[in-house]
Amino acid sequence: MMKAYEATGDVWKATVYKKAIGRIKAHEEPIKSKEEAIKIPGIGKNIAAHIEEILETGELEKLDHVDKDVGVFSTFTNIWGCGPKTARQLYNKGYRTLGDLSKSDDLNRQQRIGLKYYEDFNTSIPREEVTALGEFVEKQAKELNSSAKLELCGSYRRGKKYCGDVDILMAVPHYETKEEYTAFFKKLISKLEDTGFVKDTLSMSDRGTTQLMYLGVCRGPNYKHHRRIDIVMVPASEWACALIYFTGSEFFGRSMRSLAKKERMLLSQHSLRKDVQRYYKKITNSGKRLDTPTEESVFEALGVPFVEPSKRDDLDINAALQ
Ligand code: DCP
Ligand code: MG
């Protein structure tokens, strides 16, 4: 249904479904009735009724009325790098299948890589494989610098059994200047290419800031599938705030940033700052940067108890405090 509304450009309805999907995914217990469904924040009466129908009949009748073209749209938006807008453009140009697209000049380089690994990128990764891929990268990194630090983030760190991609955060203690950690990171990526682990590169950017982000495609030795891998390199002093950001969930991260704001602080993926002055949305004084060597120290400075990564799926830290 979300894809159907995205296809027709009904952003508001698509968002309602997107939010519900997020909440259902994050819900720890199986949902066995409409009553259980409606208790979950973000699930309204209509979606609870859909859930009941699926529980009872195994199907959702409303989906039968969705145009078959939505199937095409949904296939296209499942190509990495292809959003709703591109999918609509491709559709309007007459493309209907992945086969059509494989002969087309209308995809950019990233979308062509997305198409090449379509099946693999749409298959979730068992946790054990993510562990093995992370260990491979760690071994290569430590061969370059034995004190290099690496943490698997995203859904993996939140304890999921299956992950959409591999998210890695890296730093080398005492590497603060961009020159030193950029040199290390470039060497690492080349090494990952030389060993045959990295199969394709989607992008390498420094996001105009202190953090470097590599997006690519890898395959572990002894593994069958190609996987999406993101590696982020940060200066050592940004480790803890970056760790919170990349662990997610996106929802939890947003709630932490809004909590900071209430405390007249500013939390980002780079740092935590205090005594921040704002005039409406504008920051008029960026205050003072706090030293945050660990994740725990960030929670402490914000005055909230530490939240285990496995509890960060669906948690609004503000609501939890009330
Ligand atoms: N993130 C964020 N805001 C975004 C994108 C990402 O805060 N717009 C953070 C939170 C995510 C983390 O980065 O948890 C990793 O992004 P992913 O898209 O890889 O999301 P997950 O790892 O949580 O889920 P998946 O299993 O689908 O990869
Ligand atoms: Mg991820």
Distance between the termini: 34 Å
Number of structurally distinct domains:
4
Strand/helix succession: HHHHHHHHHHEHEHEEHEEEHHEEEEEHH
Reported by name, the CATH topology of the largest domain is: Beta Polymerase, domain 2
Indicate the CATH architecture of the largest domain.
Answer: 2-Layer Sandwich
How many beta-strand runs?
A: 12
Write a short abstract of this structure.
The protein is of the alpha+beta class.
Give structural notes.
The chain is an alpha+beta fold. The chain folds into four domains: 1-66, DNA polymerase, domain 1; 69-116, Orthogonal Bundle (DNA polymerase, domain 1); 125-234, 2-Layer Sandwich (Beta Polymerase, domain 2); 248-321, Beta Polymerase, domain 3, CATH 3.30.210.10. It has helices at residues 2-8, 11-26, 34-38, 45-57, 61-64, 69-77, 84-92, 98-102, 109-116, 118-121, 127-144, 154-157, 178-194, 239-247, 250-262, 295-302, 317-321, and strands at residues 125-126, 149-152, 162-163, 166-171, 198-205, 212-218, 227-233, 266-267, 272-274, 277-279, 282-285, 288-289. The strands form four sheets. Strands 2-4-7-6-5 form a five-stranded mixed sheet, with helices on both faces. The protein starts with a helix and ends with a helix. The mean pLDDT is 94. The site of 2'-deoxycytidine-5'-triphosphate has 12 residues, from helix 12, helix 14 and helix 15.
Topology:
Blueprint lengths: L1 H7 L2 H16 L7 H5 L6 H13 L3 H4 L4 H9 L6 H9 L5 H5 L6 H8 L1 H4 L3 E2 H18 L4 E4 L1 H4 L4 E2 L2 E6 L6 H17 L3 E8 L6 E7 L8 E7 L5 H9 L2 H13 L3 E2 L4 E3 L2 E3 L2 E4 L2 E2 L5 H8 L14 H5 L1
Parallel strand pairs: 4-7
Antiparallel strand pairs: 1-3, 2-4, 5-6, 6-7, 8-9, 9-12, 10-11
Helix pairs in contact: 1-2, 1-6, 6-7, 11-13, 14-16
Magnesium ion binds next to helix 12.
